[in-house]
Each structure stands twice: as C-alpha cells, then as structure tokens.
Amino acid sequence: MALKARPHIKWRGGTLSLRRVFFHHFNSKLLFFFLTLIGLVQLVTIVFIDTVAIDSAKTQIYENLSVGGRVFTELMSKRAGQLAQMTHLLSTDFAFKNAVATSDHETIISVLENLKTRVNAHMVMLISLDRTVLANTMHPEIEKDTLQVPEALTEAENHGEASSIVTIDGNTYQIIIVPLLAPDPIAWVCTGFVIDDELLVDLKKLILAHISIINTNKTESRPVIASTLPKQASQALLKAIYRVDIEKVKPMEVSYGGEKYVTAITTLQNAHGYSIIAALQRSLNDVLKPFYRLRRVLYVFFVLTLLCSILASLRIARSVTRPVSTLVEGVREIAKGIYSHRVEIRYRDEIGELAEAFNMMSVGLEEKELVADLLGKVVSAPIAHELLKKKVELGGEEREVTILFSDIRNFTTISENHPPKQVLTLLNMYMTGMSAIVEKYGGVIDKYIGDAIMALYGVPIANPDDPDKALKSAIEMMEALSGVNIEIEQMGFAPIDIGIGINTDIVLAGNMGSKSRLNYTVIGDGVNIASRLETLTKSDEYKAKIIVSSTTLNKSRGDYLTRSLGSVAVKGKSEKITIYALDGLAPKDHKRSNED
Amino acid sequence: MKKDNCFITIPVTAACFFFILVLISHCYGANLKAVVTDEAGKPVEDAVVTATPTTATAKDVKKPSDVVIDQVDKEFIAFVTPVQVGTTVIFPNNDKIRHHVYSFSPAKKFEIPLYPPGVDANNKVLFDKPGVVVVGCNIHDWMKAYIYVVETPYFARSDSQGKMIINNLPEGQYDVAVWHPSLSPKSEQTLKVSVAGSNDNDVKFTVRLTQQWRSRRAPTLNGGGGLYH
After folding, report:
1. Which CATH number fits the domain that encloses residue A514?
2. How far is B94 from chain A (nearest CA, A)?
3. Based on the domain organization, do A276 and A348 belong to the same domain?
4. Residues A124-142, mean pLDDT to the nearest whole number
C-alpha cells in the first residue's frame, strides 16, 4: 500500500510500481546510470560553454566597441579638422575679406551664403572682434545679434581657432570658428555642420555598431542629438544612461525589443557648456549568432551521444542479462528436476565461467539423479532417499518398527506346474500390486524373498500410526488379491492365496553388510516373530489369513475386527506371545477409512 | 646739472625740474631719447614713441617726405613704419615674384593688385588719416607690416635695443606716447614732457605686449591657419 501513490503499470498480470519495475531490471539500472552520467556531463558542458561564450562575447563586443569608440572619436576629430581646414581656406579668400570690408550687411550675407555652398556647411556666421554676430545665414535679416556660442569663441580667441559641438536654435552643429585675417584678425568666421542621423549612418558602416550622440545634460529638451537607432531604442538607451553611472558601469547593457545591446560610452565633448557623449552599441545576439549555430550543432551532437549511449548501455546490459536469463532458465529447469538441461554461453568471461560451472553442476545433478533413480528401484524410495541424504556408512540404530511379512500359499506347487517365465510374470504382477499398496500406506519394501514380501513401517521415518498403516496395508492387500486373481486366472493360473504376519518391535535399523556392499534393513527378534506369525497363517488351527501380534494391535489406534488366537510360543523366545487374527476394519472405522 | 643740484630739495623736485626746462626753453633742437622695455626688462623693438606738442606751435610744417616699405624675400621691410599724416608710402617690389599689397584697416583701405618686381610710379599710397594700417600681401598670408599714421611729425621707432631718439624737438610741451602692434591696451601711456633749449630728454616706457597673430610662412599645415607667436 506504500506504493499506492506511485505510477503503476500492468506487469505480468499484476500491478507493480514503475519504480520497482524500472530498478529491478539491470537494463534499466545501467541505462539510468549511463543516461544520468552522460546527461549530467552534457548539461554541465552546455551550461559552462554558454556562460563562457556569452561572457566572452560581451567582453569581445565591449572591447570592439571601445576601439570603435576611439575610432569614432578620432573620425569626428578628423572631420572637425577637415572642416576647420575648409573654413580656414574660406577665411583666406580675398574677395571675402573685401566683401567684409565693405560693411554692407546684405553683401556680407550674400558672400556667407556663397561660402556656405562652397563647403556644404549648414550655416555660416560672421562675428566681430567685439563678439557681436554681424551676419548669420540662419537669420539673414538681423544685422547685429548676440552670440549664442560665447565659450567656443573664447577658445578661438585663446587658441586661434575653435571646434565645438553646440546647439543653436534647436539644431546641433559641429562648429568651427577661425579668424578672418587681413592679415591681422578683422573678424571671426564661424561655420556650422549639422550633426544628424544621416551623418551617423555613414559612420556606422565604418564602426559596425549603432551610434548615438547624446547630450547628457538632463535639462536638455532634445537630448538625443542623432542616432542610428529607431526612436524607441534610443529612448531606452537614454533612460539607461540617466539611470546608471556611465563612468563606472562598463560595459553597459541596454535591452529593448527583447534584445540585449552591449553599450560603450565615449565622451565626445565636455567643454563650452556641453557634455556630449557617443554611445556605441552592438546586439549581443548578432555576435552570438555563430555561437548559437555551434550550440545547435552541439545539441544535435549531444542527442546523438545520448542515443548512442542508450544503445551502448542496452547492448552492454543485454550482454549481461541475456546469459543471466539463460542461467536463470537453466536453474528453473534444474529446479523442475530436468537435470539434463545445459546452458550454452560462449562468453569467455566470469559469466562464461559461471555457465561452465552451471553445466558441471547439472552434469553432477544428473549423475546423482541417475544413481538415486537406480537406488529407488533396488531399495525402497524412502530408503534410497535416506541413503542419499546421509553419508552411507555401516551401522544402525535401534528403532521401533512394524514388520509385515506376506507369502503366497503353495507357491512351490505353482512354480512347479508352470514355466518359470510365466511364473516370473505372475510374480512381478503380484508384487507390483502389493508393493503399491505397501507404499501407499508409507511402508517400505525391505526385500522380496522369493514369493514373500518383507515390508517395514517406521523406518527410515517414524510415524505414530505406523502399526495402523501396517494393519490397513494388510487388509487392503487381502482385498486387492481378488482383483489380482482375476488377472492371474486370465493368464491360466489357479487363483492364489496369501498369508500376512505383522509384528511391532524394537529392532536394529541401518546399513548392514560389507563396506563395499551393504543393505539398509532391520534385524532383530521382532523380524523373526513377524515371519513366524506369517507362517502361522498356514495352520488350519487358526483359520486366519492375517495374524498380528498383540504388540502391534496394542499400539494401533484404529478399530479392527479381530479374533484372539491365544498365545503361541515362538522359536527362540522364552515367553509366549499373544496373537490375533485380523479379519478387517471395524464397521465404524471401515467407514472412516473410506472417507480417507 | 651739478650746479642746479644745490637748489633741489625733495619736496620741490617738480618745481625745480620745471625751472630747468624754462631755462633751456629757448635753446634749439633738443633730442628726446626713449627706451621701451617689457615688464621683464627686455628691450622692445618696433615700438613707436610719438611726441605730440600741446603748447608749442609747430613751426614751418612742411609736407612729409615719402617713405618706402620694401618687399624682400617675401617679407615687408620694415615691419613697423611710423608716418605722419599726409605721407606717401612707396611699396617697391624687390622680390623675384609678384606681390599683392592690401589693407582693410579703417585708417586706410587700399589695394595694389598683383604687380611685378621693380618700382612702379603707381605703387604708392597716401596716408591721409591717422591710425594703424595693417598691410598684408594677398598671396603671402604671413607677410605683414604696420603703418602707424600719426598727426605729429615727431616720432621714432625703437631698435633691437628698444632705444630710439626723436631729434630736434622744438621747445615746448609734449604728450609723449608709446605704441606697438602688440601693445596691451592696459599699457597705453602718455607722458607729459617739456622740451627746453637743446637739452636732451630721457623717457622710459615699460609696456606689456600681448600675443600677436602671425601666419606661418608657406608651406603651411592649416591652409594659412595661424598661431600666436
């Protein structure tokens, strides 16, 4: 009932728990062991490879991005340098200087527009030495305006030129400020080049990463200056940048749209009131794609390995269990008594040795069985059994035994009038029938002495009702005789008559004879008395076919029809013994006997 | 000067100095010796010291004579040229190549378009307004010259020792000022000087110079982009 909760299956007509079935089979145990072992190894391998691969991918991406960041910064710086060169070239244009010298606003605006077109700038400003915007292509109508990029101009004043990323009127520009030399500075020329998504798209092809340029000033209304990312993604990036300390969290990871992006931050500018960074991003999945392919191959490989190990373990298990089953079958056959059974196992290992030993054992058993069978024919089966059970040696023990002697009347006359072969047939037929009755009641045929039968009750195994068994045997033998006589008459003989003598006494039972040839038998006065009582049945004085001693009758428990025949002196005995004729079972007892 | 020393006492130094000036005021042709150094005491070359009379009426003011600013080996010579208003400056070309001299300075805007070596009658410019005129060459960014146009005929330019002499100053009161292309506005200073007789006057200016824009000589890295030197 303890197994009630476990899964059950039908198994050879009964219900067993899966666990019991599974673990009671060597196949299953071996399979379980191998699968667990290989499965665990593979699991550990996969987890290990996964962790290492993803970690190294992250590191690799971050390193690449860091290099990319430096390249990007360098590119931006080179670009600024080129723009500065172009602006310088513009500033040395004599016609431009001439136009500026006219102080005519419209002319100046016009020449600035012209210069703007020459270098593909998005705006050009002319700033006076006293920091007033004299002309601005974005606001051509304003003649004098306040400078929106004072910090950058200060740098130009200090260093001769300035390059900066600034926001003017909501747009972010890379601006260049150079002096207009005649040949001393007479004004400042500021060119602006818009930083937008388009610019980054080109750079992305070089860097092989998403680029976003971000103004990290939290009050900035348009913090994402430009990005190659979709808007949603760049907003996610912005949130991440606001959330973490970008100086410390390296590499940064930003997730959106179910993808992880390794992110590296490079400072583009931290001057002129602007804190501008470039965020370079690469999708972890993109980099891991080859690894995922490898992992799929690994999975397939692992499944194949697992299948192979299943097959291998089944094969190994079968190589063990098949001979074992063969041996088990062999043992079952032996248990059934089929000693001729041999197992055929061709292994040369321990199992082979076991099979060999098994076969040797069955050979031994077969030989023993042969001997026992033969013995059973020569001696009575129980005695044969007793002999085989114990060590066969000379000597005996005192036992109470009931001895039955039967004899055919006038057998000498019969044998004289008929051919010996027919006599032997008759005798065998008679003996077979009588012996069967003796054995039916647990008696042991001690020996056949011509036409006489000597049977023992109480050896080798004693029973309290041994005397009863002898008495009942005798009664049944007499009853069986009529049946036997019918057959005897068919053979052409006259019906035969028999006499039976029964006595119970303490006798010596054991193996008697010489060491090389011995008999299990009993000897003692009791035996002689039984023989003598049988002889008495021939006497007309008693008119009894079965004569039993008072000893036997007293020890019996059943009710029998008996007649006292008085006492009789027996040769070799000083005391007379009381004898009785046994005519059959008492009616009551007879009835009970039938019930048995 | 020794015999005057007995009259001089510390509280009346200024009065005595004035007295001496009065004593020599009728003498002709006094010289003004000026020394210009920077704050570190190093002599300043190309500084211009002007003496503008405040009391004396300038006698026999004649038309100033022409001045030459030469061009040799792609440089203007001299770097600084002080002239009096009304002076004509001749720009001869003593190079093997042509030059294109110009100025966009408010004091004088002019242009002598690309002209060949030699002296041409057209290569002269009259400077009729006071002020600083920065002269450049359109095809050589680094070429630069300063013409300091002043009202007074009394001026001199310092040599490499920072020294100069303004000769033959008539007797009278003068505002003596210093100018230099890189002069910091904070260093602008004017001294009152009385010129009397033929006695020489010594003035000393300590000035602060700022960085000056100069283009590099070709070949250049930045297409003419300049650095301060």
Report:
1. 3.30.70.1230
2. 21
3. no
4. 93
Q: Which amino acid is at A16?
A: L
CATH of the domain at B177: 2.60.40.1120
B21: confidence class by pLDDT, cuts 50, 70, 90:
very low
Element (H, E) at A29: helix A26-91
Give residue A364's domain range: 337-376
For β-strands B80-84 and B140-150, DSSP reports them as: parallel
Q: Are A421 and A359 in contact (CB under 8 A)?
A: no
Residues A347, A210: one domain?
Answer: no
pLDDT, tens digit, for every residue of A29-88?
Answer: 888 888 888 889 888 988 988 888 888 888 888 888 888 888 888 888 898 899 999 898
Q: Which residue of A has its CA nearest to B141?
A: A183
In a domain, B221, yes or no: no
Residues A516-541 have a mean pLDDT of 87
Whether A171 and A230 share a structural domain: yes
Q: Are residues A530 and A418 in the same domain?
A: yes
Residue A418 lies in a domain: yes
In a mutagenesis test of the A interface, which of B110, B138, B144 is the best target, namely the one with the most A β-carbons within 10 Å? B138
- B210 reaches A (C-beta below 8 A): no
CB contact under 8 A, A84 and B144: no
CB contact under 8 A, A181 and B213: yes
State the smallest CA–CA distance between residue A160 and chain B in angstroms: 6
User: Same domain, yes or no, for B74 and B37?
Assistant: no
Minimal CA separation from A96 to chain B, in Å:
12
> How many whole angstroms separate alpha carbon A596 and alpha carbon A442?
14
Q: Which of A266, A134, A143 is nearest to A207 (CA)?
A: A266
Neighbours of A19 (CB within 10 A): 12
Within this chain, do residues A341 and A458 fall inside the same structural domain, yes or no?
no
Using the predicted structure, report yes or no on whether residue A207 has a pLDDT greater than 80: yes
Q: Could you tell me if B144 lies within 8 Å of chain A, comparing CB atoms?
A: yes
Q: Does A178 touch chain B (CB under 8 A)?
A: yes
B 1-60 residues with CB below 8 A of A?
none
pLDDT of residue B161: 94
Mutate to test the interface with A, among B100, B104, B146 (most CBs of A within 10 A): B104
The CA-based angle A322-A324-A328, given to 5 degrees, is 115
Nearest chain B residue (CA) to A82: B222
Q: Does A97 touch chain B (CB under 8 A)?
A: yes
- What average pLDDT score do residues A198-218 get? 87
Displacement of CA B197 from its chain's centroid (Å):
24
| Range with lowest mean pLDDT among A305-314, A338-347, A404-413 | A338-347
Asked if the Cβ–Cβ distance from B104 to A182 is below 8 Å, we say: yes
**A90 and A222 co-located in one domain:** yes
Selected for mutation to probe chain A from B105, B220, B222, B227 (highest A CB count within 10 Å) is B222
In angstroms, the CA A306 to CA A38 distance is 7
Beta strands of A28-158 (E only): which ranges? 123-127, 132-136, 145-146
A187 touches chain B (CB under 8 A): no
Pairwise pLDDT comparison (B64 vs A132), residue with the higher score: A132
